[in-house]
C-alpha cells in the first residue's frame, strides 16, 4: 500500500528492499553505518543487515570508489555514498578513468553495477564544499548514467532501478528536498529510469528541470497561472541519457522552453538541451531556449546562497522574456 514519506525515508526503504532481496548488494561510505549517514538516509540498515553489508569506511573517497570497483568485478552490487557533493572530487579519477571505462575497455565483457550516491545542491545553509552541483561533469563522461529524483516516489524507484542496472549510475540526491513528503507505492510499476515526466500540463511554455528545481518550477507555474499563463512543467529525472524525445514533444506543443537547474548556466546541462532542442525544433520555436541557473562563480557562503540560487522571480523573469518574443 502507498505510504506518504519523506525523500530521505524513501531512499532508506529502497536500500532496505535491495539489501533484503540480494545478498550481493552492499552499502559503503563515511558514517553510513552506526550513525546512519549525516542525513540519516541509511539509518538502521547496519543494525538490521550487519557490518559486512553496511560498511563504515575511512574518510577516503578514492578508496571508497576503488573498493567498490573491485567488489563489482567480483559480482557484488555496491552502493557507495559520497557524504557531500564537494567531496566527490578525490574520487573523480576513479569514477571517470576506471568506473566509466571498464565496460568499453573490456569490449563488453566486464560490467560494473556500482551506484554512487551524492547528496547535492544548496539551500540548507551549509559551509564550503557542501552545496555543489557537479552533475554536468559526470554527464560529460561516456559510460556513466546520471540521474536525480525530485520527489520521494521517484527517489524510491530510481534507486531500485539504479541498483539493478549493470552500468554505473551516479545518483544525485537533492538534499534540500530530503524532508519533502510524497506518496510512495512499493507495488507500483515505475517509469523507465531515463524517461522524463510531465508533472503539470500547459500550453504556453515548457519549464524543464530535474532534482531540486522541479518543485520551484511547479511554484512558478502556479504563480504564472494567476496571470493567465499556462506553463508545462517537465521533470527530466535523468541528466545522462537525456530524454530529448519528451522535451521535443512538449516544446512542439508549447513552442517555448526555459531550462532550470541549480548548477552554473555556463557549460551546464541546460546548454546541451538548448542546443539539441534548437536543432530539433527550429521551425516550432517562437523564442530562443532560455536557461536559468547558478552563476559562473564559486558557491557563496550560506548567508549569500539565496542570491546565488535560482528563485521564483528569476525563473518568472525568464518566462516573461520568452513570452515577450
Automatic annotation (TrEMBL):
Sequence ranges assigned to domain Transketolase-like pyrimidine-binding in this UniProt record: 5-180
Gene3D superfamilies per record: 3.40.50.920, 3.40.50.970
Taxonomic superkingdom: Bacteria
Assigned EC number: 1.2.4.-
Entry-linked SUPFAM superfamilies: Thiamin diphosphate-binding fold (THDP-binding), TK C-terminal domain-like
Molecular functions per Gene Ontology: oxidoreductase activity
Cofactor(s) the record lists: thiamine diphosphate
The name this protein goes by in its record: Alpha-ketoacid dehydrogenase subunit beta
Protein source organism: Streptomyces eurythermus
